[in-house]
Amino acid sequence: MLSLRATLNDGTGARYVDAQAANGLLYTITTQPRFRAYNLSTLQEMASSTTLVSTPSGIALLSGGASAVVTSSGSSQVDLVQLATGYRTLVTSGANTTVSNVISQQVAPGLGDKAVSTRATTGTVQRIDASPSVMTVTSVTVGALSGQTARCIIPTGDGRYFIGTSDGKIHTINDTGFTYQTVTLPNTPNVSAPTFHVASLSYYDPYILATTTQGMAYLWNYSSSAIVSTQMVGTCDSSNVTCPLSMNASGMAIMGRSLAPGNSYADIVEVYFEKGAITFPSTFFNEINIAFNNVGLDPSTWICWEQANTTTANYQLRTFDITPNNKIQVETAIQKPQGTYVGGDIIRIRDDGIGRTVVESDQTIGASATLIPATEGHNYIEIAITTTPEFDVRQFLA
Amino acid sequence: MSLTYVASVTPSSATLRAGCTNETDNQLIVVESTTPSLIIYNMDTQAQVARWGTSSAPSCVSHVAPGVAAIGYSGTSVIDFMQLSTGFRLSAAAGTTTSTVKGQLMAADLSLQLGFMVSSTSRNYFRFDYGAGGVVTSYLNRAINTSSTANCIILKSTGRWLMGTTAGQVIEINAGGEVVDIADFGNVPNSGALSVSTNTANTINYLSYDNNLLLISWAQGALSLVDWSTKEVIYTQPTGSSTNGTVLCAASSGVCITSRNYTTSTTSNVLFETDFTCGAPISSSLPLFTDSTSAILDAGINTTTARGWALQSTPRIRFFDVAPRASTTQTFTYQVAGDHVPFRLLCLDRTGGVGTATRLIDTYAQSPGTYRVPTGKTLIVAVGYGEGANALYQGSQIST
Questions:
Q1: Interface predicted TM-score (ipTM) of this complex, two decimals
Q2: Which residues in chain A come in under a pLDDT of 50?
Q3: B328 at the A interface (CB within 8 A)?
Q4: CA B314 vs CA A135, A188, B27, B46, B301: distances in Å
Q5: What part of B 260-289 touches A (C-beta under 8 Å)?
């Protein structure tokens, strides 16, 4: 479940552009422009910069844990910010602007204090190398991106990156521009084939969840290169993305869904896609219809946040608690008669409420107590089937 | 699953208002307000079969009897019965329907040769009976909230209709126009909102129904799935639509057509095939991308041929095919001390054996409850009564 914790505004009338969390802190950049760090639980400000690159567009926390890079969509410059103090240095040589400062996921961290960002020039992305002490910024040509721009970028966790493009593709690349795999999101059936952008991405092996400027969500199985699930979500467009995705945590992520102008609310939803289907276990409805430019999730505290594309104080940045998605092992067994173990099948269904169930496991167990994964804090309906077949059903809280 | 595009037709000198399917003759009947006229298309060839003038600018049309369509108006207080082969009109005094351009303003039961039209007057609707010689009766129904109007109507089953109102009510009426069931979902699209004070009226624009499951399209840009037997709101999801919300049509083998009208002028609108019966809770196909940003006004399926249609205001008429579902119905029960009770129903498809279970139905049903299920499948069913530690569940397996 999602429940509201707090609303944050920086007091200057600036808009929060991007935010990342680590170590219990929320590191933000604003249009003022400033870098500001907050305690994620209390929202007490812990650090800030005295200034920052103009029109900041994205922040990526570097793997060393001490610093972050900040990109810009209005200035050919990249800043390096010390997280503890807000002290910043900058590089302009080799730097270029990113494609937007209202679209999330403009820059993604890699390994070894590296990062890769979008780049306004077609066919290229931007490699940022802050290791060991001197930051360098380099344009990287991606052959598969010819004539197009990367609209969003996320890390795979092993030094590669997924980029969503302006022609509806997702490429897996490294920071030299080598392309490992490409998927084209479907534009069929059609009367006339549309062009749409990939708006946001979230990755949980082997699935990549992608939203598009058509307001669609597609779940791509990276291993089989198949689109396995489709959902219509909020309204999106190419300049003011309103269906951003957070990073995943054990197969779930946060999605912002705005509606059409004149509608009365915009919600953020918990998206669960671990098992290859897009489901929405919980929803939080805001009281107004706002456009989101970023959502995020910190799996260490299970606090998530939404950032609205507005300078209105009450809606700038909101934090939420969410039911943890930690995987645990829960024992099960089939006895017939009571006290005598027998083998059979176990179907374990996560039950987040009527209409929100999902089959998490379906397997055969032997004639003994067996540990099967479940998600901590969630309700389950478990069906045991013996070979006869006979059925037994139980409910439990993991 | 996805829609298979067939063809588009551009009617000449036409402002499309609404359409209906003549299933018997595999024809699409549309009304338009420029000429104004009723136009008939062959759904196989997409050729225009006939075009007949109407008494004024029509708003809605329904196939009420073999070879006969009923036509309603927003500016003229009559309902016309038109002979489709000749264009001959029989007019009966009635009232007007809404001037909003949308579908589902009238619905008829071909077997009874009568139907209903929603009215522009609050709490009001009209019954038109072709079988009785073209009689129109006006109803003032105080079950409809004060100052709100019936805004859409569909045929639920023989002799039963479902109406959606501008106050978020769904009302089931019988052939006599009497209320037989009612539910108020007025706050559903905003449930859980921090504040409801800024919300606008919760208007139901379209409905689709199949075997206890009711799909509601809200003007606010959301779809809700409801179990009509218990009035349980199973699921609500935004659709992001603007003009007229998301258009729905009558279900065919458990699926209906849904539309999406985008807000940006550069994005062409799309159509989906949406399964709300065996695709728990709502499963939409890959979109059929049109080439037009004009609003999608109305849609339908010929349940016999699985040929579908949609109207865009450009004007364009889109023809496409829906993938027919091999399905049947299954009745599920739960009794306590011999009494039928409301119960939790979970139905899984496990045709492929161990490791393949997927969810088909997840609802809160009233026993006995009949639902659509796919044929040729092995289903695992869990039915439960009560909550938490006191819940009593039973499992079973059925083959369809």
A1: 0.91
A2: none
A3: no
A4: 55, 22, 21, 17, 21
A5: 260, 262-264, 267-268, 270, 272, 280-281, 284-289
